[in-house]
Amino acid sequence: MLRLEAVHSYYDKSHILQGVSLEIGEGETISLLGRNGVGKSTTMRTIMGLNPPRRGRIFFEEQDVTGVPPYRMATLGIGYVPENRQVFPRLSVMQNLRIGLDLRNLSEGEKQANLDAVYESFPRLKERADQVGSTLSGGEQQMLALARAIVTQPKLILLDEPTEGLMPAMVNEIEQIIRWMSEDLKIAILLVEQDYRLALRASARSYIMAKGRIVHSGGSAEVLADSETLHEHLGVA
């Protein structure tokens, strides 16, 4: 479904991604792990067209989408939930969701059906439909960011640090939502998450990054059992 081939990406003169290659199959959940600052979020921004690569190619469903702008990536079927969630703080929950719905060429009836389905899956958001984004808790904002991506009916979601700053109970809830998206909605997911155990539980395969490169890949269960690799690249005991 998604394939990166030797992608190089920069911020000004800083060479961040240095030949990153990875792939995600249809409906597959993949985790992208590594220490802070190794290029994980830049990988997602590069895929989404927010920081286009200077070298290398990106393919989505065998179509070359290298450098395609973010709005086009969204219409092709890629959702993006950034690290800081980026809900619109002065818009209501419903208005945030409508922005997602309006990305697709849907009838008003189809939009309402999608909205109703999301509210059924996220009843807390339905309760707060008229509440503005800035007044939601961190966990509720994360739910809204996820729901705003889901309502577009994406084929792939780029999910960056979904549990950052959340309380343990909410972390567990977000993990269940990730599983639901993968197993029930059949959405492919590229997951960046500092809680490596959660990421490895939720994913079938994993890539580990260091200094802008992929340095290890394999089945997530195998990576979880490889204490030497985890220690070397993630700094865990």
Model description:
The protein has 237 residues and is α/β, with parallel strands linked by helices. The chain has ten helices and ten strands. The chain has helices at residues 40-48, 70-76, 93-101, 108-121, 123-127, 138-150, 168-183, 196-202, 220-225, 227-234; strands spanning 2-11, 14-24, 29-33, 55-60, 63-64, 78-81, 156-160, 188-192, 205-210, 213-219. The strands form two sheets. The protein has a six-stranded mixed β-sheet with strand order 6-7-8-3-9-10, sandwiched between helices. Strands 2-1-4-5 form a four-stranded antiparallel β-sheet, covered by helices on one side. A hairpin with a 2-residue loop joins strand 9 (205-210) and strand 10 (213-219). Helix 3 (93-101) packs parallel to helix 6 and helix 6 packs parallel to helix 7 (168-183). The longest helix is centred in the C-terminal third of the chain and has 16 residues, at 168-183. The radius of gyration is 17 Å and the shape is globular. The mean pLDDT is 93.
